[in-house]
Structures are given as C-alpha cells and as structure tokens.
Design goal:
The chain has one domain (6-259): 3-Layer(aba) Sandwich (Rossmann fold). Strands 6-9-10-3-11-12 form a 6-stranded mixed sheet, sandwiched between helices. A 4-stranded antiparallel sheet has the order 2-1-4-5. The chain contains 10 helices and 12 strands. With 260 residues, it is an alpha/beta fold.
Length: 260
C-alpha cells in the first residue's frame, strides 16, 4: 500500500500573535501521491491559514493535532526544512524582490532543495527545459523576482519555481486569484505540464473554473475551520451552479458560515 504524502490528524491552528484566535478547528485530510485535492470554501473559512500551517509559517501555531509528511511528523519542523523535504507553497500574493533576478533566486532555491551547489551548466539546462514545458521565454527568467510583473506573470513565476524544484507535494493557494480567462488557462496548463505521477497537489480556490483545467480527484469544503463535506469533482460543479448556501443549509451550517 502506498504511503500517504500528507496526513492531517485533528489539526487545530491559531494565530501566533493572538493565541486565543483559533482559525482551524479540527481538520483531517489525507493526500496520496498523484492525487489532486481541491479545497474550497467561503471567505474567512481558513483556507489560506491551513495552507500556511502545512508549510510551516511562523504566523500560525498548531494547538492540537499532527502534520505527517511522507511518514514523518513535521508538526513542529521549520518552514525551510519542510521546503527542502519537497513541500512547495505557491503564494496567493507573491512577494516582490527588486534587484534579484529570477535566475539567481531559483538557483539558490534549488541549491537549498538539493543540499549542494548546482553546476551552472546543469542548472541552465534544467531551467531551459522547464521554460520550454511552460512555453516561456528565457527573457522572463532574467527579470527581477515579481518586480513589475502582472498578476498572471507572478503566478507563472511561481509555477516556474515549482517546475525547477520538483516538489513531492505542491500547495497552490488561490493560484487563480485575479487572473483573467486567458491567464488562468496559461497557468493551469503550466501546472498540468509539470505534474508527475508521484506528486500530490492541494489546490485552494474560490472558484470552479480552474478545476476545468486541473481536474481534482477530491473536493473538500472548508467552513469555519472545519472540512464539512468532501466529494468528487461534481461537488465543485454544484458550488458553481448554486453557491455554498444550499450545501451549508443542507448541513445545517448556514448561520455558522455567515458568522465566520
């Protein structure tokens, strides 16, 4: 039996600066190699908090539960160590780093991931291969990290990093946020081009439209810090057609969702 990539067991998470504010209130989730899990939910339901906690952000504290990654308990492992182990987080709002080129940034990231300096020729070969898969020009990699990038370019830069780092688990936090239809298609096709059979994806989104390109094996609805319903891709279509209210009403959670 294949070992899960990620297991969340009774996870409860609060804000580090405000420990009395608990956002994730008990989440259980299993992601296996090759699976795509879509996490959906209303604003304020805790989707970004959950992704940040899995990645090890110090802004959040795990109050209870465990994060198991490839069989190891990483609940209290630092974020940089999680990244070196092959856990990748694509940010909803990528940071601008003026004066640092994408090439230099990615070479340093790859060095940290592999634990050794990557020879220049090897790095350039891998970079060009990844750019080709994503149908991107080499000029893009010479620009400063996210400096002057459009929303779509920032998201493509994240996908380029994912392609070079080859993570075992990719958490994509609202990769579709702020993108027009063409940019969304380009980014989604990029993710598809880089998928590997052994890689798992946790895709966090508000909308069903990106799931037309990246087809999920499972869809989960997060409300007030808890996964309240799980299903296949048809659940996302149900949300697209009628919103969250009919589902929450069916579950007796409509008032609680509004309060979150």
């Amino acid at each position: 039996m294949t070992e899960p990539l990620l297991e969340l067991r009774g996870l409860k998470v609060s804000l580090t600066e405000k420990p009395d504010v608990q956002i994730i209130k008990g989440v259980d989730l299993v992601v296996n190699p090759g699976e795509v899990h879509a996490l959906m939910g209303p604003n304020g339901s805790g989707k970004t908090t959950l992704s940040s906690a899995i990645a090890g952000s110090p802004a959040y504290t795990v109050d209870e539960g465990r994060i198991i990654y490839k069989g190891d308990d990483i609940t209290h492992v630092k974020a940089d160590d999680r990244a070196r182990r092959g856990l990748f987080l694509s940010f909803q709002y990528p940071t601008v780093i003026p004066g640092v080129t994408m090439v230099n940034f990615m070479r340093e990231a790859l060095k940290a991931r592999r634990g050794a300096e990557v020879p220049a020729r090897e790095f350039i070969t891998e970079l060009r291969e990844t750019l080709t898969k994503l149908k991107m020009s080499e000029e893009f990699a010479r620009r400063y990290v996210n400096d002057g990038f459009s929303g779509g370019e920032k998201k493509r830069a994240e996908i380029l990093q994912m392609g070079l780092l080859k993570p075992d688990l990719a958490i994509l936090d609202e990769t579709d946020s702020g993108l027009d239809v063409d940019a969304l298609r380009t980014v989604a096709e990029g993710v598809q081009a880089l998928r590997r059979p052994e890689m798992g994806i946790l895709l966090i989104t508000h909308y069903e439209r990106i799931l037309n390109y990246i087809h999920p094996n499972f869809v989960h609805i997060l409300v007030s810090g808890r996964i309240v319903k799980s299903g296949d891709a048809s659940l996302a279509q149900q949300i697209e057609n009628g919103g969250y209210d009919p589902i929450l009403k069916e579950l007796g959670l409509l008032e609680g969702a509004a309060a979150s």
